[in-house]
Amino acid sequence: MYTALPCTDPSAVASRPRPVARHAARLALAAAAALAPVPSPAAPDEIVVFDDEFEKAGDVGYELHFNYTPRGRRTADYTGEQIPEHVFRFMPEVVVGLSERWNLGLHLPMSYSHDTHRATVDGFKARLHYLDVRADGGAAWFHGVNFELSTYHRRISESHLSFEARGIVGVRAGDWLLALNPILNRPLNYVPGRDNRFNLDVFAKAVRSFGEHVAVGVEHYTELGSLNDLQFGSTSGQTTFLTVDLEVPGGLSIHAGLGHGWTAPVDRRVVKVMVGLPW
Questions:
Q1: What percent of the chain has pLDDT over 90?
Q2: CA angle 20, 228, 233 (to 5 degrees)
Q3: DSSP conformational letter for 51
């Protein structure tokens, strides 16, 4: 996993608080305006709330993403879709620190279906990630944005090319970490019969550390659908994860979570694990 980005001149910033939420909102709005309005389902291979973990300039980080759906949707949303239930997903990720505030990430999503007994490479993703961290008193506030371009095989998504702009805002204070990700995503190619507009998701988490090596948290993932027709309550996607983070001697880090889907549009049970490699 990446290291938390250090604060920039904490003593100076503490004497003049910065409007972090306003900066994050401007970044997210700028990302949305960069493209004209089009739905894309949330990528099933990466279940994560972005926070202040970041590679330093010149560093390279390696992470492995795993998740499995023991109880999920059993019917296809469109002809040729890979049905989510009993699918194991695996995705290696390489992140390069371009500068103190910019990272480049490359991802290779793969999956194995117990029903079809097929292992496949499902696509490719690249992302450009900006993050700024500032100290204010005893807290470290952070804000940023992640731009992501992905291409998927049709068994994963009806649109083979999609774009995501993810806002990142939060605070690390004492033993607590809070983070919020408002996300806009859309396909970049026209999908017949679909409302080709931006979709809105909102991801959030609260994590408490117990010493230097263990942290326990709650993550919630809300999928609200098209900006033209937002869904709330039982018609929206609502999934909650209980998570644990472990720092293992030797530099290995492990993040594990058990998820429960509360509404019909999402899978009922999902297990996820992320492993940060010490290379």
A1: 67
A2: 80
A3: -
Q: Which of 116, 118, 93, 91 shows the shortest CA–CA distance to 103?
A: 93
- Both tokens assigned to 110: 């793969």
Q: List strand residue ranges (DSSP E) for the chain, in order.
A: 3-4, 53-54, 60-71, 87-97, 102-107, 110-113, 118-121, 123-136, 139-152, 161-173, 176-187, 199-210, 214-226, 237-248, 252-261, 269-277
Q: What is the pLDDT of residues 74-93, one digit of tens each?
A: 888 888 889 899 999 999 99
Asked if 98 and 58 count as a contact pair (C-beta separation under 8 A), the reply is no
Summarize pLDDT for 196-254 with one digit per residue, the tens.
789 999 999 999 999 999 999 999 999 999 999 999 999 999 999 999 999 998 889 99
- Least Cα distance to 217 among 272, 166, 262, 277 occurs for 272
Alpha-carbon distance values, 243 to 208, 256, 273 (Å): 10, 6, 9
Question: Quick one: which H or E segment has residue 11?
Answer: helix 10-14
